[in-house]
């Protein structure tokens, strides 16, 4: 389970804003975890939302071509949104992330 906290005990204002942005994106992604959705769909949503949040915070330029924004987001967030869980933490690499979610599947949203 991934957690983030400030070493000093308190977030600075920019840190708190970024933390809240990431938390908002995670909650939006969690809301999409339902039958028929796929990890790939949720990943696409995550990239879009992170791009919007980083633009809102001024980390990325407000006016940025979509392709350039997507590259910047993938550079700043170089991992997938989550993964399947089997009997071990990372034992399902052969399962496609495009597979629609079904009842009984277990995934992470990181």
Could you describe the 3D structure shown?
The protein has 110 residues and is an all-alpha fold. The protein is 44% helix and 0% strand. It is globular. The relative contact order is 0.17.
Task: Name its key features.
110 residues; mainly alpha; 3 helices; 0% strand
How is this structure best summarized?
By secondary structure, this protein is mostly helical. Helix content is 44%, strand content 0%. The protein has helices spanning 13-31, 39-56, 66-76.
Topology:
Blueprint lengths: L12 H19 L7 H18 L9 H11 L34
Query: What would you report as the Rg, rounded to the nearest angstrom?
Result: 15 Å
Model regions low in confidence, pLDDT < 50 over at least 5 residues: none
Termini Cα gap: 8 Å
Succession of helices and strands = HHH
Beta-strand proportion: under 5%
Q: What's the helical proportion of residues? A: 40-55%
Mean pLDDT: 90
Number of helices: 3
Q: How is the main sheet built?
A: none
Number of strands: 0
The chain-level structural class is mainly alpha
Shape: globular
């Amino acid at each position: 389970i991934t957690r983030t906290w400030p070493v000093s005990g308190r977030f600075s204002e920019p840190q708190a804003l970024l933390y809240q942005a990431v938390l908002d994106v995670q909650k939006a992604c969690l809301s999409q975890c339902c039958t028929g959705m796929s990890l790939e769909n949720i990943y696409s949503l995550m990239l879009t939302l992170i791009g919007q949040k980083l633009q809102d915070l001024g980390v990325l330029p407000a006016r940025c071509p979509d392709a350039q924004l997507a590259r910047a987001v993938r550079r700043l967030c170089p991992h997938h949104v989550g993964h399947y869980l089997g009997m071990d933490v990372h034992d399902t690499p052969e399962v496609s992330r495009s597979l629609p979610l079904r009842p009984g599947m277990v995934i992470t949203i990181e």
